[in-house]
Every structure is written in structure tokens, then in C-alpha cells.
Amino acid sequence: MTDPWVALEPGADPAERARILRRAHETFTVAGTVPRPVRAVVADSWRRSVRAGVGPDGGADVELADGDLGAYRAEHPLARVMPLCRELMGSFALDGEHLLAVCDAHGRLLWVEGHPESRRRAGRMNFVPGARWAESAMGTNAPGTAVALDRPVQVFAAEHFVRRVQSWTCAAAPVHDPRTGRVLGAVDITGGDGLAHPHSLAFVQAVARAAESQLALLDPGEPADGALELTALGRDEAILLARGRRVRLSRRHSEILVLLARHPEGLTGDELLCALYDDESVTPVTLRAELVRLRRVLGPGLLASRPYRLTVPVTSDVTVLERRLGAGAVTAAASVYAGPLLPASLAPAVVRLRRRLADGLRSALLARRDPDLLSDWAHRPWGEDDLDVWRALATVRPTATVRARLAALEAELTAPSSGGQLPSAPPGRRGGAPGRTARPAPGPGQRSGSRPGR
């Protein structure tokens, strides 16, 4: 197959491929092995589904209904591009007996429209507005997997992990905020086997790109007064908006800008060296070389020295999160938390800040006990093994899916191989290198064995 994201290669028989996939799915659910010709993207998704506690006979939970759904949709950024999506996809869905669906970044369906009979059939499996179709809740499916991977994807027949969905085929593509690059949700087309064609995947990709272009026109959103705008939550490489340019920063430059944004007064070379490097052998020359490269990326006049500082105001999702948490605005804080801060960073100051942000938000969610907020956290990668959150969620939203996941986690807790302890999984657990335990990180200027005179 030339494109691993397309379900069927040219000339393949859909009925025969569906039979092969059903047998492969049965083998996986019984033995845990994935036989050929299951695509790698599907095999990986099946494994993630199992790790998330999804069962092949599970179902979708409706988490937003009536007034809550209406209010949430009205405020969602994708509401502004729904007229465009209907214009581009509505006739195609009606004429082909398909469905147009749009989900948010958590895999919750916000709109499901299209052919009336298809909507009735889809309703029987809760493919309806307000239902959670995240991969971590409903297994492999196009909108949920597209959001999980941040990649257009097509899912055919028994490639779906949940059996009751295997009579459908779907294709979905993520939609991004044109200013920050953050995933806002996904557009999806769902129907019969006829959608297992490269054209359907290309179609939803084109609609997603059109939606992003429309959002950019509706809200150009230049930072005021020449300010910089930094997005670093949930990203290994931060996005910087500077003087009309959108720049993807390297990991080291991302770390430097996060720290300088938090210290408008500036940091000395010694403070930056302590904050960025846990290795005593790193010299000031190495740091100065990085700052020279960063100055070229930013452009003239934005990075000053002695001390190192940014010469224009900086807004960042990190400071927004801190401000909202400090004000007790838990719902608003959760809405801006796209994931751990620079998850792959091992810079001591970043590791410490990442933990503080995650712990602060998690504690606020547990105290608030709002079922939607707890569910959002529990179904994200950083919360899927968080026993305290799942227990809290089970008390306020005791659905079958939640109870099953909690039971699985508690079974791990008492399993002999675990010694009565769950593997350590702090909220920022995906923010460090696998297998490496980060030691307590000193703050700027507090490096162990620091060298005087720098």
C-alpha cells in the first residue's frame, strides 16, 4: 500500500478485506497479537485502546446534553466554521447517505448531521452530539484517532476497535488554531464501505484546511504592541508568534523562551545555565552559542543580554494557566491546559515548573469534583492511569465505562506483580524521558556545585 493512512489500496475488494479484518480483530481480542494485513496505524491504535481500558463490546457515553451541549458548542471556536463545513460537506453527506461530524479536542462529538436514516442508525451506537468518541473511550475510530495522533486518518470496517462500529467506515482530519497550532477538534465523514477510498481522506483534509483558513480570516489575532505570543503546553517544540511570523522553535529554544517569558527582568548566564542543564560539564560557551542561534530565529532587537531578557511583552499559555489557577477559575484553567509543559524537556527548571502546573491543576480538579472536568483529565494520556481522579470520577459519574476502568486500575493495585503498589504515574509522567527519574531540580542560580564567577 502506497499510503499507510488510507484503508484500502487500489483494486482491493472491500468485502474480502472486511472479512480478513474481522478475523484479525478477533485474534487480537483473544490472543493480543495483530496479524497481517492490519495497518500499523490501526494496530498501534488497538493497543492504545486496550491500555486505556476500552473493551470491544463497549459503548459511547453521552457527556454533554441539552443546555450544557448548546452552551459548550456556542462558545467553541469551531462553531464559527460550521456554516463552511455544512456548505462543503452537507450535500455530499446527504447524497451519499453519510454523516458529517465535528468533534472537539477531547473527542466529544459537537455536531452530527447528514442523511436521516444514517443518523438514526448511528444513534443506536450513540454517535450523537455530546457523546465522547475519543480513542481512549471508544477505541479506534476516525475522529478520536485523528485527534489522538493529530493526523488525518481513515478507518475501515473492522479496523474499528468496538464491534458495534464495525459496519461503518469513516475519515477524519484535525483542525488547528491557525495562530497557535493547537488542535481544536476534527471534521469527520462517516458512512458505508464506499468511503474506503483515498478521495474521502483527501476530502476531509481539504475541509479541515479550509476551516483553518476561515478561522485565520475571522481572527487574525496579531499580538498587540509587537508582543510575542508563546504556546508551550502539550508541545515538545513551542510555537512562537512574532512580528507576523509563526515559528516552531527547537526544544532548547523552547525551554529558553519559557524561562525568559517567566522572568521579564532577565536572567544571567549563570542562572540560565543552572535552569537549563543538569550536566555540570556544560560550559557557558554552549549556552552562548544557543542564545546566538535563538537571536537569529527571533530577529533583530528582541533578545537583549546582560542579563538575557526579551525586549517586548510576552504572553504565553503557561502564564494564562497560572493566572487562572491563582484566581480559582478551574474550568478556564482546564480549558487552556493542552498537556504537560514541554513534555520531553529535562531542563531542571522546566521539569519543576511542569510538575507544579500539573499538580496544581489536578488538585483543583479533585477539589472541584466537576464530572466533565474530571472526565476530560481522566481520558487524556496524562490521566489514564490516575487512580485518584478515576475514583473521584466514579463517584460523580458512575457510568459502566468509568467503573470498568476504575476496576482495572484497582486490580493493578492489588496484583502480586505490583507489590501492592501502582506504578508511579504523576500528572506530568509523560513529560520526561522514559525510564529516567528526574531528581529535584534547582531553581535559577541554585545549581549544585555551581561555578562562581560566571
Structure report:
The protein is α+β, with helices and mostly antiparallel strands. It has a domain at 14-218: Beta-Lactamase, CATH 3.30.450.40. It has 17 helices and 11 strands. A 5-stranded antiparallel β-sheet has the order 2-1-5-4-3, with helices on both faces. It has a 4-stranded mixed β-sheet with strand order 8-7-6-11. It has a two-stranded antiparallel sheet with strand order 9-10.
Write a concise keyword list for the protein shown above.
11 strands, disordered C terminus, alpha+beta, 17 helices, 454 residues, Beta-Lactamase, five-stranded antiparallel β-sheet
Quick recap:
The protein has 17 helices and eleven strands. It is globular and about 70 Å long.
